[in-house]
Design a protein that fits this description.
The complex is a heterotrimer. Chain B is of the alpha/beta class. Chain B has helices at 37-52, 68-79, 97-109, 130-138, 193-199, 241-254, and strands spanning 2-6, 9-11, 33-35, 57-64, 83-88, 115-118, 142-152, 157-164, 167-173, 177-181, 205-207, 219-225, 234-235. By secondary structure, chain C is α/β, with parallel strands linked by helices. Chain C folds into two domains: 5-185, HUPs (Rossmann fold); 208-324, TPP-binding domain (Rossmann fold), CATH 3.40.50. The longest helix of chain C is centred in the N-terminal third of the chain and has 15 residues, at 73-87. Chain C is elongated. Chains in contact: A-B, A-C, B-C. Chains B and C meet through α3, α4, β7, β9 and β12 of B and α3, α4, β7, β9 and β10 of C. Bound molecules: flavin-adenine dinucleotide (FAD) (2 copies).
């Protein structure tokens, strides 16, 4: 029998994240958004409470959560502030490849310090030449004695300005295209690493994003993750694990938009009655509620399948794509429900729209998700 | 020091209140139960005393039905309490404060207890009766409205303040005793995620309630009413400002009962 | 036949407290004047116990001992329980205070009473009593039936008016102090510091808030709001018109983009009641509006309204509050 109820343990994890989101994150969300401020003090508190290293196993000092529990937490955090949540999930995204393909020695060396004190990591895949097509990657890793020399540029890398280590994808054999992609762990302190200025973004302004340049950066072979040429598969396996939390993040934004719209509609009066009594507004709210619930259930199901050991490529793509489109549509309707107030910076809903937008783009743009969904789908008919 | 903290699960402060179908109580369908704010503060006080007096133990005790009672005990364990005891009442039972005190006393009497801490009152029934009744059952003194509680090991005395109608009183008292804390003044800590996970696996001792304790005690709820929706102000009629002032103070005192 | 009702007295500045007098008044209405007996403990209770006589109580018990001043409710509970037993009382009533609540709690066990605290109304129903009391921070009211032969009730402050002061004698009977466990005397009250309401409570904690709006017209006039709040022991809030004008800092702003408050009493002075303001204070228990415009939307949500010029009404109100609170 399917059972959609949470265990008491899951409820208490969710409550912790909810409390943190509403008391620590939300009160600073507008200010960080306006000033494009990276609230390190909040991320440090999240680290202290175990809300940062969500996917890091307990043996390395992390919280060691399964994907479903991570999603519960991410949705709550995103309800408080989407941008701050991006900092958290981009960090977890960077830990995932080390967990998947790192040797025991590498895990000990790279992950222990991350569990021990507040440090951020960044996942560097996207390049100026195109994020959707990693096979066209231009960053090169040249064999040189007992190591490699990296050169090239990554862009739009979340946490790059603060991260102490980067997981970098580079090509060891460009003739092989994506079969030549290899993953490396590069400390920020390595010679030749330059992080560009913070990008000015439309939303998620409490997170930071920047380009990273690699000018003949020496990387020892012991810092290579998995075999040469294993990087593309590693990136795809990583994204299979981290796409679903984007669905949760989008669901959190959508729920916040619905909550704002519904409570506003009860208080705002036009033509002598609350706008919630106008059927046009009721229909909006009903559609928004459907979208939010469907987004949550698709996310839960994808996470549940992956926790049971399945690949879940189709389901996680559906969850990410549906939830992020839902978040954008729901935030849009929330603004419409607020009328002119919704368009004002002083009210929280316009930020939700800007934040929702990113979820349709990063970790695989929704066009790419639809390609994946169709491919997986058609496999079942061929 | 052997410290016992008594806690109660109460509806979350954000709960939308609704009357149950029979009209006599709160409808608890879909209500989320949490540690009452004052109890959170009592747990914090217990942990602060423990940290300041190495070798101390904090034992958390609660009486009530599943699952909410177990949940507040686990929440207290996650915050750092060492041991937990649950006086397990049948589902649906909501003991009145005196019956709750009787149930708690059974559990407290059975474990080492030098200092018993309670919150000022529960956020739901706001009775503030449990501490005094529990102290009577344990045969020890109790002090209410307590702030700034410290243990003076050299003098073997608790030192504390009480915020009463008389003002702020300074007190000292020996153990054993029951202390009801005034309010959430101590910025209670938040349980960390690993501690929450660990608390799920810690044992909770269960004590059956005494058969003689009636299901609701000696008081029985008969009606639970919510204020009617606002229908517009009652306008005060007056000829002079002084008359307006007098009439307003009168209604605030006698009708609204909010005059300080 | 019903037994007598015992009203346990408490002193304030050397005389019976207002809370005690309110309890006498409730006792007289549920049990009949002749069935009310007073009780007072202290180092020299006889003088103040005469106050019972002036409330129309003919008989009172007094426990006299220097150690009884400032003692915790536990000790008095022992004395009251024995007194109630020897009188064959059915009801013990106290005023709404810390002392009262402590006492009642103990009687629930010691005297096997059905207890209720914070009670705003007490009525007789057949052989027992029914109480009404606010719960959930005043967001709801519950009614409870007190069962069994004994009831012990602590009122909420201002549950009733005090009985009219009238000339009257009270016959005093001393009660013995035995039976109190020695350990109960071991605590010491070292000092009492009477606190002044200097800074007042913070906006979000306050049980009373007085807020001013654009109607106050200028920063210097905000003194009127401060004074009214001080007389009530409450905090000061403001509408955004006020914080935008810089008459008060932003931390005073109540509303959707300011603080969300839900005090027992919210007094809105010169505030029109824009929806953004209402969203910050609509859950207040009692709302009072003072505004010169009778069509101001604030009157739709207020419980009580004064349509008038705030510059006349507010100073008069401050005076009246001070008078009523004996300041
Ligand atoms: C705020 C922010 C944070 C980010 N953080 C990270 C990070 O931490 N690490 C990281 O590696 N990357 C990160 N990215 C990069 C992000 O993942 C990419 O932007 C994304 O994958 C899209 O790549 P692109 O921007 O190069 O767009 P392009 O690949 O140039 O695509 C442009 C458009 O064409 C569409 N498109 C492309 N190919 C196809 C096709 N075959 N069929 C149909 N449509 C197609 C795309 O969907 C898109 O609409 C971040 C981006 C942003 C904006
Ligand atoms: C994006 C946005 C966010 C907002 N957020 C908030 C918020 O969080 N909080 C908030 O308060 N507002 C907020 N507002 C502003 C809100 O819409 C109102 O403009 C504001 O509340 C008006 O304040 P007011 O009632 O003091 O002033 P007014 O609306 O000008 O009302 C003044 C009142 O004083 C009365 N008056 C005048 N003289 C006297 C007198 N002598 N005696 C008695 N009464 C008198 C008048 O009759 C009038 O009703 C927001 C507005 C926007 C657009």
């Amino acid at each position: 029998m399917p059972d959609f109820s949470l265990t008491p343990e899951q409820e208490s994890l969710r409550d912790l994240a909810r409390k943190f989101a509403r008391t620590e994150m939300a009160p600073h969300a507008a200010e960080c958004d306006r000033a494009s401020r990276f609230p390190e003090e909040i991320y440090r508190k999240a680290f202290d409470l175990g809300l940062l290293n969500l996917n890091l196993p307990t043996e390395y000092g992390g919280s060691g959560l399964g994907l479903f529990d991570q999603c519960l937490i991410v949705e709550e955090l995103a309800y408080g502030c989407g941008g701050m949540t991006t900092t958290v999930i981009a960090h977890c995204l960077a830990l995932a490849p080390i967990l998947l393909d790192g040797s025991p020695e590498q895990k000990e060396r790279f992950l222990k310090p991350i569990g021990a004190e507040y440090r951020l990591a960044a996942f560097a895949l996207t390049e100026p030449s195109g994020g959707s097509d990693p096979g066209s990657m231009r960053t090169l890793a040249r064999r040189d004695g007992d190591g490699y020399v990296l050169s090239g540029e990554k862009c739009f890398i979340s946490n790059a300005p603060q991260a102490s280590l980067f997981v970098v994808f580079a090509n060891t054999d460009p003739s092989q295209r994506h079969k030549g992609v290899t993953a490396f762990v590069v400390p920020r302190s390595a010679n030749g690493v330059t992080v560009g200025p913070d990008d000015e973004k439309m939303g998620h302004r409490a997170s930071s994003t920047a380009a990273i340049r690699f000018d003949d950066v020496r990387v020892p072979a012991s810092d290579r993750l998995g075999p040469e040429g294993g990087g593309f598969s590693l990136a795809m396996r990583t994204l299979d694990h981290t796409r679903t939390p984007i669905g949760a993040l989008a669901t959190g934004i959508a729920q916040a938009a619905l909550d704002h719209a519904a409570s506003y509609s009860l208080k705002r009066e036009t033509f002598g009655k609350p706008i919630s009594e106008h059927q046009a507004i009721q229909i909006k709210l009903a559609n928004m509620a459907q979208a939010v619930q469907a987004a949550r259930l698709l996310t839960w199901r994808a996470a549940w399948l992956i926790d049971r050991g399945q690949k879940g490529t189709l389901e996680s793509s559906i969850a990410k794509c549906f939830a992020s489109d839902a978040a954008f549509a729901v935030a849009d309707e929330a603004i419409q429900t607020f009328g002119g107030y919704g368009y004002m910076r002083e009210y929280p809903v316009e930020k939700l729209l800007r934040d929702a937008k990113l979820t349709q783009i990063y970790e695989g743009a929704n066009e790419i998700q639809r390609i994946v969904i169709a491919r997986e789908l058609l496999r079942g008919y061929g | 020091m052997e410290i016992v903290v008594c806690v109660k699960p109460v509806p979350d402060a954000e709960t939308r209140l609704r009357t149950a179908a029979d009209g006599s109580t709160l409808d608890i369908e879909a209500v989320k139960f949490v540690l009452t704010g004052y109890d959170e503060s009592a747990v914090e006080q217990a942990l602060l005393l423990k940290e300041a007096n190495p070798g101390s133990k904090v034992h958390v005790v609660s009486a009530g039905p599943p699952p909410r009672t177990e949940e507040v005990l686990r929440a207290s364990l996650a915050l750092g309490c060492d041991l937990a005891t649950w006086v397990e009442m049948p589902p649906g039972v909501a003991p009145d404060p005196v019956s709750a005190a009787r149930a708690l006393a059974r559990a407290v009497a059975a474990v080492p207890h030098e200092l018993v801490l309670c919150g000022k009152n529960a956020g739901d029934d706001e009775a503030g009766v449990v501490a005094g009744a529990l102290a009577e059952l344990l045969g020890v003194p109790d002090y209410s409205a307590v702030l700034d509680l410290r243990w003076d090991a050299a003098a073997s005395r608790l030192r504390f303040q009480r915020s009463t109608e008389a003002g702020v009183e300074k007190w000292e008292a020996p153990l054993p005793c029951v202390v009801a804390l005034q309010q959430a003044w101590n910025d209670p800590r938040t349980a960390k995620l690993p501690a929450i996970l660990k608390s799920r696996r810690l044992p909770i001792a269960k004590v059956p309630p005494e058969a003689a304790i009636p299901a609701t005690g000696t008081t029985r709820p008969t009606k639970f009413e919510l204020p009617p929706p606002r229908t517009g102000a009652k306008l005060i009629e007056f000829k002079t400002p002084e008359e307006a002032a007098q009439k307003l103070v009168k209604v605030l005192k006698e009708d609204a009962k909010v005059f300080p | 036949m019903t037994g007598p009702t015992l009203v346990v007295g408490e002193l304030h500045d050397g005389a019976l407290s207002d809370a005690t007098k309110e309890a006498v008044s409730v006792a007289q209405s549920v049990s009949g004047k002749e069935n009310v007996v007073g009780f007072l403990a202290g180092s020299s209770p006889r003088g103040p116990a005469a106050g019972f006589g002036r409330c129309g109580v003919a008989r009172a018990l007094v426990a006299e001992d220097p150690r009884l001043d400032g003692v915790a409710g536990a000790v008095v509970a022992h004395l009251v329980a024995s007194a109630a037993d020897s009188l064959g009382a059915e009801l013990v009533l106290v005023g709404g205070s810390t002392f009262g609540r402590d006492l009642i709690a103990r009687l629930g066990i010691r005297w096997n009473a059905a207890v209720a605290t914070g009670v705003t109304s007490l009525t007789r129903t057949g052989a027992s009593f029914e109480v009404r009391r606010p719960v959930f921070g005043g967001r709801a009211t519950e009614t409870r039936q007190l069962e069994g032969a004994h009831a012990a009730v602590a009122l909420r402050p201002h549950a009733s008016a005090a009985p009219p002061d009238s000339p009257g004698e009270v016959a005093l009977t001393p009660v013995p102090l035995d039976g109190v466990p020695a350990s109960f005397w071991a605590a010491k009250r070292l000092s009492v510091e009477v606190v002044s309401r200097g800074a007042g409570p913070s906006l979000t904690d306050a049980s009373i808030i007085v807020s001013g709006g654009r109607g106050v017209r200028a920063a210097e006039n905000f003194r009127l709001i401060d004074e009214l709040a001080a007389s009530l022991g409450g905090a000061v809030g403001a509408s955004r018109a006020v914080t935008d004008a810089g008459w008060r800092p932003e931390s005073y702003q109540v509303g959707q983009t300011g603080k969300q408050v839900s005090p027992q009493l919210y007094v809105a002075v010169g505030i029109s009641g824009a929806v953004q303001h209402l969203m910050g204070m609509i859950s207040s228990r009692v709302i009072v509006a003072i505004n010169s415009d009778s069509t101001a939307p604030i009157f739709k949500v207020a419980d009580y309204g004064i349509v008038g010029d705030l510059f006349q009404v507010v100073p008069a109100l401050t005076q009246e509050v001070k008078r009523a609170r004996g300041q």
